[in-house]
Amino acid sequence: MTDAEILIEEVAAYLKPKDVEHVREALEYGEAAHLGQFRKSGEPYISHPIAVARILTPLHLDVQAIIAALLHDVIEDTDITMEQIAEKFGKPVAQLVDGLSKLDKIEFETREDAEAENFRKMLLAMARDVRVILIKLADRLHNMRTLGSMTAEKTERIARETMDVYAPIANRLGLNAIFQELDDLSFRYLHPNRYAVLTKALKVARGNRREVVGKILDAIRQRLTEQHIQADVQGREKHLHSIYRKMQTKSLAFSQVLDIYGFRVLVDDVASCYVALGALHGLYKPIPGKFKDYIAIPKANGYQSLHTTLFGPFGTPIEVQIRTHEMHKIADAGVASHWLYKTPDAPFNDLHKKTHQWLQSLLESLSQSGDSVEFLEHLKVDLFPDEVYVFTPKGKIMALPRGATAVDFAYNVHTDIGNRCVAAQVNFELVPLRTELSNGDRVEIITAPHAKPNPAWLSYVVTSKARSEIRHFLRTAHFSEAIQLGERLLNQALSSLGLKSWAADEASWNRFLKEIGVKSRDEVLADIGLGRRLNMVVARQLMRVGEEGGHEATSSGVVTIQGTEGMAVQFAKCCRPIPGDPIIGVIKSGQGLVVHTHDCPTLRKGRSGVDKWLDVAWDRNINRPFEVSVKLLVANQRGVLAKVAAAIAEAESNIENVNFTNEGDYTCLHFTLQVSNRLHLANVMRSLRKIPEVVRISRVKNLPT
């Protein structure tokens, strides 16, 4: 029998005769379309779509999905169009095929951009119809099975992509068999020597441990029978890459990995799961801390089971999974169980609801990502398999990736909660926002109306939702603040040329925008604020295209610094200017306006480019803290640090950071303090000089940047 005949036989086992005929028509259509095309291995190309369709038949996918699998490459590799497929097989099939087709006709700057955009398109289609990813996973699985005919470079790239993205997606959707095979095949091609050595070692171990496994199986069956529990007990072997991962993470040799075999107990109902657990804990002692209840708290991919690890005979640890037959079906088929076991039972509905929520979160990060590569980064982050389960103040369970912080939790609750969070309580104790959450934590987020995301959060959040929402907020806020700064800088430049602010009329602006090829005035102002355009150059260009006239200046041309400009105005870290210091501004590309003190040593080294320097002055009504660096030389005596900290607090200043270096009988303390202005700083330093142990005190203005 040919592969095509076997496929027809397989679909006939569960599809209606009319649908089987449609599959036959698609098979003939695909054969004609790919006629004369061959794979790298030398086989006729049609063998690949047939193999993909055959991978899907055990999942009982419907006729539209099977036809789309047979035609998934015709748009890419032949002259057939999406419209022709729609006309022949219907619009749903055409949309599935289109979602699977790469964007080969669009030129990208790099291979990474092209790959990222392909994922972006595929996941958009997947959000509309999950069958797209099921077909794509089957396509990737067959490609991985036949990867040996590719070049070494392409083999490594495809295997890496499979391990990083496709295998985790299969795991996230609960497609256990596909996940394990993709994972092992990726491991085989990325680490061929390790794969070969482990495969050989596993065969030897399989023979050596057969007798032990048999005894354990018999003992488990006997104990369950004594407790009148009807159960199907199976032995299972861990897949190769999971064994290798355990060796890596725990620094073990293969001989030290004792639990390469596990056991599965399938019972009729949920109550029997817990009765069976008690029976097995009576047979072999459980290992503390190794019990997980995924029935009460299912995994994000819908997986439910009880996991326990026991001390078996000869001191061998035994991993046992206990679940119902229905749970086992979901554990094997995942989201595809909708087609494989059509039933109105709640677990299936819950699973598809969770899958839909995950896809919607992907769509949100997709819409907010700056580019496709950034989105692919979000996707990889989102595919971490390990999870922690935490509780909201109302007792709702929330699943987050391992390593998630209080900020991740806040964004998972709601975007507005994340954007306004200022602190967190974990188990009723105040903790920093960067605190990693653990299983069972009760988490409460404290918000403030005027709070906003901190760019530093990006260094420790792990969920794609938090990362994309923070970047979206910062990108939007930065643009808005840059527009406001750009407007002030342009006003200053126009004034210095003897024009009233905004002397250029609407017509002048329109001609200017058309000349430089920019869509809006805001873009030009943002570019000025971010240092991508010079305010003086734009002012002169506006003068040239507008009406010229001798207008008197109406402002001094000095930009006032209010301290509330946000990210568009930055205070230099090298000299840390504070109100009262003589200051000067410099425009830096991509950063906006950077304010330095007049005597900043770093500034003197690179003072060139007249148009980039701006006259700036402090606003009279500044009311916010500024950071300043202070160095103290103190005698090495007990309690001196406490005295210094108390003096700073009494002077109404706050310590932002402190570190020290020993210098013989003395210690050099480096403080970063928060002060309002130079007068406030003088008061703080006066208080510190009163401490007998303080030998010398000075402000530091030459810090490394």
TrEMBL record:
Gene Ontology BP, a term: guanosine tetraphosphate metabolic process
Top-rank taxon, per record: Bacteria
Residue stretches making up the TGS domain: 386-447
Domain ACT, first and last residues per copy: 629-702
Organism (species): Ferriphaselus amnicola
Entry keyword Hydrolase: yes
Keyword Hydrolase: yes
Signal peptide (from-to): none
Gene3D superfamilies, A to Z: 3.10.20.30, 3.30.70.260, Beta Polymerase, domain 2, Hypothetical protein af1432
Gene Ontology cellular component terms for the protein in this record: plasma membrane
MF GO annotations: GTP diphosphokinase activity; guanosine-3',5'-bis(diphosphate) 3'-diphosphatase activity
Function in brief: In eubacteria ppGpp (guanosine 3'-diphosphate 5'-diphosphate) is a mediator of the stringent response that coordinates a variety of cellular activities in response to changes in nutritional abundance.
Family: Belongs to the relA/spoT family.
All copies of domain HD, residue ranges: 45-144
Name of the molecule in the record: Bifunctional (P)ppGpp synthase/hydrolase SpoT
Key words of the record: Hydrolase
